[in-house]
Amino acid sequence: LSRTRIKLFPVGLLKLKKLKYLNLEYTQMVQHICGISGLWHLRVLRLFVSGFKEDPCVVGELRLLENLETLTITLGLVSVVKQFLGNEKLVKCTRVLRIENLTPRSSEISFGTCTMDSLRELYLDNSDISEIKLERRETSLSLFPNLSYVSLEICRGLRDLTLLIFAPNLTVLRVMSASELTEIISKDKYYEQQQSLVPFQKLKELRLDNNSMLKSINMSPLPFPCLQKIFVNNCSNLRKLPLDSTSVARGDLTIEAPIYWLESLDWEDEAAKDRFSPSFKGFWRDDIDGVGIFRVNEYMKKK
């Protein structure tokens, strides 16, 4: 039933008592899933980008699915998000989580009441989130052991993403239009949480776009053994990348950004500058008849 235009949850499905797999992803016209708790044998339930994201009954229905093993879901109401993240059973079986359209501005969300073992992808979109709190158990250093993809877009209020230090297998990080984000990893919160963890050891792609207040990715250079691409655009306050001459093994790293930004980067030292200048791929923007066109050219920074 995924990507269909159904408007109501099919009542006939409730008669399929032995149903084990149900895919309702991208059914944005469905407003509720009342009664789904009667499908006791469901093991896989896919609800990513479905229309009932503000249904206050959703957590109550899902927590009754005792055999559920895999869940993908989109949530869009603060109270529902808090209920969901506070339910250990649902948190542990969630593979993909999208949180969107949260208001008011004082919204807070908390991770860490239990390890999200199954989580692979996390999306935060078009929300007012004042803070992401970490309620970490002292015995667990990895809250998101299998999280590989994080996308944050049009989020207001957030000032850092320090929770990512607990995602050791993160491979892709995309942060776009986070208007108040000043740091990716906060120095103060890092030392509060866990000094021994080194973030981004599996990171392959970092994309930062239209984050006007962003000043820092990390407080000091990091090793990036897997990094392949950095993309930066419209991040005028970000003047330095967390790189030194040994951060990335010799390979095909690409640093794609506006030419003026690449030319004005601050470096840890001359060795770092010499090491990464060949990785630059500069671009500029031409406005033709009111339409912005990106022209991308290989660019070697002049020493």
What labels would you give this structure?
single chain, alpha/beta, twelve-stranded mixed β-sheet, two-stranded parallel ribbon, 14 strands, elongated, disordered C terminus, LRR_dom_sf, Putative disease resistance protein
Fold blueprint:
Layout: E1 21-23, E2 44-47, H1 58-62, E3 70-75, H2 78-85, H3 88-93, E4 94-100, E5 108-111, E6 121-128, E7 131-134, E8 149-156, E9 172-176, H4 187-193, E10 205-209, E11 229-233, E12 254-258, H5 259-263, H6 270-276, E13 280-288, E14 291-296
Parallel strand pairs: 1-2, 2-3, 3-4, 4-6, 5-7, 6-8, 8-9, 9-10, 10-11, 11-12, 12-13
Antiparallel strand pairs: 13-14
Any overview of this molecule?
The chain is an alpha/beta fold and 303 residues long. It has a domain of 156 residues. Helices cover 13% and strands 26% of the residues. The protein has six helices and 14 strands. It is elongated, with a radius of gyration of 21 Å. The C terminus is likely disordered.
Give the structure's gist in a few sentences.
Helix content is 13%, strand content 26%. The protein contains six helices and 14 strands. It is elongated and about 70 Å long.
Number of helices: 6
Give the strand content.
Answer: 25-35%
- Biggest sheet strand line-up: 1-2-3-4-6-8-9-10-11-12-13-14
Mean pLDDT: 83
Number of strands: 14
Uncertain segments: 286-303
Structural classification: alpha/beta
